[in-house]
Specification:
The structure holds three protein chains of three kinds. By secondary structure, chain A is mainly α. Helix content of chain A is 76%, strand content 0%. Chain A has one domain (3-90): Helix Hairpins. Helix content of chain B is 74%, strand content 0%. The termini of chain B are far apart. The relative contact order of chain B is 0.07. Chain B contains eight helices and no strands. In chain B, helix 1 (3-21) runs antiparallel to helix 2 (25-45) and helix 2 (25-45) runs antiparallel to helix 3 (49-73). By secondary structure, chain B is mainly alpha-helical. Chain C is mainly alpha-helical. Chain C has helices spanning 2-6, 8-18, 25-35, 37-59, 83-92, 103-120, 138-147, 149-159, 163-194, 199-205, 221-237, 249-252, 263-287, 303-324, 330-357, 363-384, and strands at residues 209-210, 213-214. In chain C, a hairpin with a 2-residue loop joins strand 1 (209-210) and strand 2 (213-214). The chains are: A mainly alpha, B mainly alpha, C mainly alpha. The interface between A and B is large, with 71 and 81 residues.
Chain lengths: 103, 192, 398
């Protein structure tokens, strides 16, 4: 098993953990936590391919990851603002109870 | 695979697992911070120094704090008594196991990936800056616009609208500690 | 001869490494480099606590501690041995943990504060060739581990299950993240001009002399404004007066470390002061020339003497500010950060760019100083307009 395969397996395990948490847990914030874990696993994948790939001096994967981190931060901010706004309206963060489109 | 790297990988995986399993949300967020630090250590091992430091700066220093503040503002700081799993959790768990199996099988049975072993690249921050300012300057500007839009959007969404109060923006920052304390106290009284 | 004195620690370390067998050399080299930091800086911390108490006492027209010199003797040493009984007191106090507290998080919070702060010292250049780990992205590393301190503040405040602790922690976190932005932006101007994130390269850039005066960045208009912004933001990051609302005794008991006693409180105290030294060290490296001498005829003094001399000068400045200025209220603090310091830091970046592209003539001094002074006046008057400050009146007891 090459180092690249080891890194990819590790990130696949992280991705599966984040995915399991995102679809299993009831609280809205924990779903966002799972999404952040999945994004981190994807970033790790990109860096692994950048490091062990053919042209690391082109810095493609590296720059991709920098932009991906910025995007993940922005998405976390907006997502958590949404959770706070929903909590203010419905007094609950339980995803099972927030299932009506009528506000 | 050196021993420190192995320990880092094990700690990161354990932290990620417990972050998704714990009942107490604040503990879960702190475990997530540990997981992010572990991932940053893995980045440093892969010669991506700049990305590793950015990970600590952005994820541990900002996103983990954001998550704990959101936990406090929605009065979810205490351990819930009811079930923490959503309806249909079993299907979700099965699907995630299937996802991991598919990914793992694809990784281990690929010929291209099995030959992935390259010498360490020597990159400097100057190279990163050069590439960002010449080749990738358009995505950089778009990211700047996107971050501005996200910031304005987040503030507008989370804005406390109460009729008759002073709607100057600086009161919203003073309301964060007040809202957190009142939410905490209200949650305690609701639990009693 | 003075060159040898300058490099005495480096040559000492090389000679010690000569005695170590080859396989152990990387590990022992790393340990030797790191080992001085947890020794020197806590010793500096103990002396600074005594200096602070005596200094604040003198400014308030009283003596500070002046009895304890060497314990168990009658030698007074003007009170400079005070840190020994203080340390002993902190170590032997009973460690009270509230019954409802979250035990593991409560225990780990001081540790999580101390470790990133000690990590931050590893990129500071204490002298010529005397950096522990010379990262290519040293400035980024410093700010990254500085951001990890906020997690420990939250852990301390939340795990105590105390309303005041939680309130103090939320205020402290809001203050820290608000002032991190002007801090980083004022450091960005230096990085922009030097073209590198490497702290040794930044110091080397300031190691030139024109007419006998060094090229410190604080002697340029944008550097002076940046240094002032950095100073104010570092006061806020270390929770020092006038920004110590989250931990002020008359406001919120002790804020997020209300429920800590004994050794854990000592660790928090140590972590706070070490954080102050670290951020002062970064300010010295970025703006005040690091280990370089201000005048070319003074370069014979060893480089580490200059670094620690400048560090003590900045620490004494912080102590002076603490004894003199009143505390800012929370909303005043946040307004100041977001409405004054952040625009000024952004304008400072533009001014630094103008400085760089205007060439080496004398007009750039005028243009840059004029823009910065104009921005300061405009932003300051915009911020002060909302305060309805009338003429000072006195009211006497009847």
């Amino acid at each position: 098993m090459s180092p690249l395969q080891g890194c990819l397996l590790f990130s696949a395990l992280l991705f599966a953990t984040g995915f399991a948490g995102a679809v299993t847990r009831r609280h809205a914030i924990l779903v966002l936590v799972g999404i952040e874990l999945m994004l981190n696993a994807a970033n790790l994948n990109l860096i692994a391919f950048w490091r062990f790939g053919p042209h690391p001096e082109a810095l493609t994967g590296f720059i991709f990851v920098l932009f991906s981190m910025a995007l993940a931060a922005a998405e976390a901010a907006v997502g958590l603002a949404l959770v706070i706004a929903i909590y203010r309206h419905k007094r609950t963060s339980n995803l099972d109870e927030v299932k009506e489109l009528k506000g | 695979m050196s021993t420190p790297l192995l320990i880092t990988l094990v700690v990161t995986l354990l932290a990620a697992g417990t972050a998704m399993c714990l009942r107490n949300l604040v503990h879960s967020a702190l475990m997530l911070a540990i997981c992010f630090s572990g991932i940053a250590a893995v980045y440093l091992q892969l010669n991506a120094e700049f990305v590793g430091f950015t990970e600590i700066l952005v994820y541990v220093g900002a996103i983990a704090i954001l998550i704990v503040i959101a936990v406090l503002l929605t009065s979810s700081g205490e351990t819930p008594e009811k079930s923490v799993l959503t309806s249909g959790w079993f299907a979700g768990a099965v699907v995630s196991v299937l996802v991991f199996t598919a990914l793992g099988w694809a990784v281990l049975h690929s010929h291209v990936l099995a030959s992935g072993n390259a010498p360490a690249p020597h990159i400097t921050v100057k190279d990163v800056g050069d590439v960002l300012m010449t080749q990738y300057v358009l995505p950089l500007e778009i990211i700047a616009l996107m971050l501005t839009a996200a910031m304005i959007g987040a503030v507008i969404i989370a804005y406390k609208e109460e009729p008759g109060t002073d709607t100057k923006p600086q009161t919203s920052t003073k309301e964060i500690p007040a809202a957190s304390v009142s939410a905490y106290v209200a949650g305690k009284e609701g639990a009693q | 001869m003075f060159d040898q004195l300058d490099q005495i620690f480096v040559t000492l370390k090389h000679q010690l490494m000569g005695f170590i067998p080859g396989a152990w050399q990387p590990l022992v080299s790393a340990i030797l480099s790191i080992a001085l930091i947890p020794v020197v800086f806590p010793a500096l911390f103990s002396i600074v606590t005594v200096i602070e108490r005596k200094g604040i006492g003198r400014i308030q027209n009283r003596y500070g501690p002046n009895r304890v010199g060497i314990p168990f003797t009658k030698i007074r040493l003007a009170g400079f041995g005070q840190f020994l009984p203080d340390g002993l007191k902190m170590l032997t106090k009973e460690d009270i943990v509230p019954r409802a507290a979250d035990k593991l998080v409560h225990f780990l919070a001081p540790v999580v504060m101390l470790v990133p702060v000690l990590l931050a010292y590893s990129v500071l250049p204490f002298g010529r060739n005397m950096t522990v780990s010379d990262f290519d992205a040293g400035v980024l590393f410093f700010f990254a581990v500085g951001g990890a301190v906020e997690i420990s503040v939250f852990m301390a405040g939340w795990s105590s299950r105390n309303k005041y602790s939680l309130l103090g922690a939320m205020r402290a976190i809001a203050q820290m993240i608000s002032y991190e932005i002007p801090l980083i932006l004022s450091a960005v101007t230096v990085v922009m001009i030097v073209g590198s994130l490497n702290l040794s390269a930044i110091v080397q850039h300031q190691n030139q002399y024109t007419f006998g005066i060094a090229h410190w960045f604080v002697f340029t208009p944008w550097g002076f404004a940046g240094f002032l912004l950095f100073l104010v933001a570092s006061l806020a990051e270390s929770n020092r007066t006038p920004f110590d609302l989250p931990e002020a005794e008359s406001e919120i008991i002790a804020g997020y470390f209300t429920e800590y006693s004994g050794f854990k409180f000592a660790l928090f105290f140590l972590g706070e002061y070490l954080g102050m030294f670290a951020i002062d060290g970064l300010g010295i490296t970025l703006f005040l020339g690091g280990w370089t001498a201000p005048f070319s005829f003074l370069t014979w003094i060893p480089s580490y003497v200059w670094f620690f001399g400048k560090l003590m000068a900045l620490v004494c400045l912080f102590i002076w500010i603490r004894a003199t200025l009143p505390r800012l209220r929370m909303d005043q603090l946040m307004n100041f950060a977001w409405k004054f310091m952040l625009p000024l830091a952004l304008i400072n970046i533009v001014v630094a760019g103008i400085w760089h592209f205007m060439g080496q003539d004398w007009q750039r001094w005028l243009v840059c100083s004029a823009i910065l002074a104009g921005a300061y006046v405009v932003l300051g008057s915009a911020l002060m307009k909302k305060q309805n400050l009338g003429k000072r009146t006195y009211r006497f007891a009847e």
